[in-house]
Amino acid sequence: MRKLMFILLVSVLLLLVASPVYAQGSAAPERSWAVPIGVGLGMGLAAGLAGLGQGRVAGSVAEAIARNPGARPGIQIALFIGLAFIESLVLFTFVLLFIRS
C-alpha cells in the first residue's frame, strides 16, 4: 500500500511540474535550450533500452537453439521478427524526436 501511495504521489508531482508546458506562449516562440537536451536523452534512452532488449532476445534464442537444434528455422524467424519490432520502435522514436525538434 505504501508503494502504491508513493507512486501516486510521484505521479501527481510530475503532473504538477509538467503543467506549465501547456501554458500559452508568446506569438513568436523562441528556441528553447531544453529541446536538444530532451531529444538527446530520449533517443539515448530508446536506443539503450532497445539494445538491452535485443541482447535478451538474442540470449534467449541462443538458449532455445541449444536446447532444441531441430527447431532452428522457426526460432530464427521469430528472432528476426522480434528484432525488427524492437528496432522499429527505436526508429519511430527517432522520427518523433526529429519532428519535435
CATH topology name of the domain at 34-101, in short, is F1FO ATP Synthase
Low-confidence stretches: none
Shape: elongated
What's the SSE pattern? HHH
Structural class determined from secondary elements: mainly alpha
- Residues in β-strands, percent: under 5%
Distance between the termini: 40 Å
| CATH architectural label of the domain at 34-101 | Up-down Bundle
The oligomeric status of these chains comes to single chain
Residue share in helices? over 70%
Main beta-sheet strand count, sense and barrel state: none
Question: How would you explain this protein's 3D organization?
Answer:
- With 101 residues, the protein is an all-alpha fold.
- The chain has a domain at 34-101: Up-down Bundle (F1FO ATP Synthase).
- The chain contains three helices and no strands.
- It has helices at 2-18, 34-67, 72-100.
- α2 packs antiparallel against α3 (72-100).
- The chain is elongated.
- The mean pLDDT is 84.
